[in-house]
Amino acid sequence: MRIFELDFCRHLFRLNGWEFNPETTAKPSVIGKWTNDIYDRLAPGVRQALHERVRRNAKGTPTQQLNRYLTPENGRPEMKRLLEGVILLMRMSTTWDDFKIKLDEYYPRFNDTMQLPFNTGVYRLPSPPGEK
């Protein structure tokens, strides 16, 4: 059963300005990195635990999808809910950078430092009185 639906890939391509044809378009390898990022937002340690379980080829590359090992009672339903929210953020975004900001705000990675949203660029502390 496929977890990352076609709509997810379609939006990844759109947000990056890439042409997408579901029948002929090969997925760039960076998409694997981006899907791993989604697993990091599911729950602490989930991605690492799943990577330990999947089969790998002689080069060490996974030969199975991580979602194969999500539990049917908790893991799959939680991942589907997360992806519904992620796809909604993708629809609301105009660029990849815009999407990443929204993703970090609404679905932060566990054990990660959040970026503060300074609208004025670099924040500078005021000078002490009497200094210029």
Layout of strands and helices, then pairs:
Blueprint: H1 6-16, H2 30-39, H3 46-53, H4 75-92, H5 96-106
Helix pairs in contact: 1-4, 4-5
Describe the structure in your own words.
This protein is an all-alpha fold. The protein has one domain (6-106). 44% of the residues lie in helices and 0% in strands. It has helices at residues 6-16, 30-39, 46-53, 75-92, 96-106. α1 packs parallel to α4 and α4 (75-92) crosses α5 (96-106). The radius of gyration is 19 Å and the shape is globular.
Descriptive terms for the model:
5 helices; globular; 132 residues; mainly alpha
Category by helix and strand content: mainly alpha
| Helix/strand order, N-terminal first | HHHHH
- Please compute the radius of gyration using only Cα atoms: 19 Å
Low-confidence stretches: none
Number of domains: 1
* Strand content bin: under 5%
Number of β-strand runs = 0
Report the average pLDDT across residues: 84
Alpha plus pi helix count: 5
Overall geometry: globular
- What is the CA-CA span between the terminal residues? 64 Å
Largest sheet: none
Helix content: 40-55%
How would you sum up this structure in a few lines?
With 132 residues, this protein is mostly helical. It is built from five helices and no strands. The longest helix has 18 residues, at 75-92.
